[in-house]
Amino acid sequence: MFASATAEQAAVHGRMFAQRYARFPNIVWMTGGDYSPETDDPAAGSDSDHVLRGMLEGIRAAGSDRPFSIQLGPQKSLSTDNPFWEPLADWNFVYTYLPTYKAVLDGYQRPAGARDPRPAVFSEGNYEGENNQPDTAPTTDETLRRQALWALTSGSPGEFRGSDDWEFRDGWESRLDTPAVTQLEAIRDLWASWAWWQLVPDVDEPFVLDGRGTRSTDDEMVDVLDDDYVTAARTPDGSLAVVYVPTQRTIRLERALIPPGATLGWIDPADAAAPSLPAEIDRDGNVATPGTNVDGDRDWLLVVEA
């Protein structure tokens, strides 16, 4: 819509837009969308950068201080990757078709700057019904669970789900409540039942000592289902720890970080509303996943609660 607009015209639009939605408390601002500006000087910004910033300036001039971010281009990006937008983004729009923990942790562990720390939110990955990596398996419910749970145990304060029905394919009305929708809704309700904002990613791996698999350290295109790294997060006081185990295995926990009397349970991420299964831990801290979940897959969520 801004193809032929000036920054001044965009500012007028931004002011009007912010005034129209001023009464809504639950919105954030985001621009871009697979956005890769063409410029020889990214820090100075392209013409389109300045037009989009004009709209943001209009929003701010209208008195709106709602958090702002920008979605840059695939296959993996953070809003702060672009030097023009880095000082303007209030939260990092994490966009990745790779295993999500990598990009979220990249955002979480950014070197502290003038505006950091700031949230790194998993905002777009593989959609239900789509897979943007050629020659890989179709996106499944397990793909969507992995994306969400990897993100939530890597520092993301939330996650987004997409569907190929953004194209309004025939029969889209019948796919508003798919099994994936039900599964992710239950995972969100589960997360909301905890003090999730206190969870700190187990980045240096002091809690899960063995059985984690290999952590991705580059941006090589790997399908979500071809990575099996275990992610974990725990509160500083140890009263809650959550470990996402994508495939069947035995992991070893640091028993000294488990409070006396804490309970360990396996939650089926394909049915997170169901009661948890008891998790047995031996004196060395070894815990084995229980087998297949209700979807016939082998991903599980281990929860330690004091």
From TrEMBL:
Residues 5-198 form the Apiosidase-like catalytic domain. Residues 115-140 are annotated as: Disordered. Residues 129-140 have a biased composition (Polar residues). Transmembrane segments: none annotated. It holds the Pfam family Apiosidase. InterPro entries: Apiosidase-like_cat_dom (IPR025277). PANTHER family: DUF4038 DOMAIN-CONTAINING PROTEIN, LMO1036 PROTEIN. This is Apiosidase-like catalytic domain-containing protein. The lineage of its organism: Bacteria, Bacillati, Actinomycetota, Actinomycetes, Mycobacteriales.
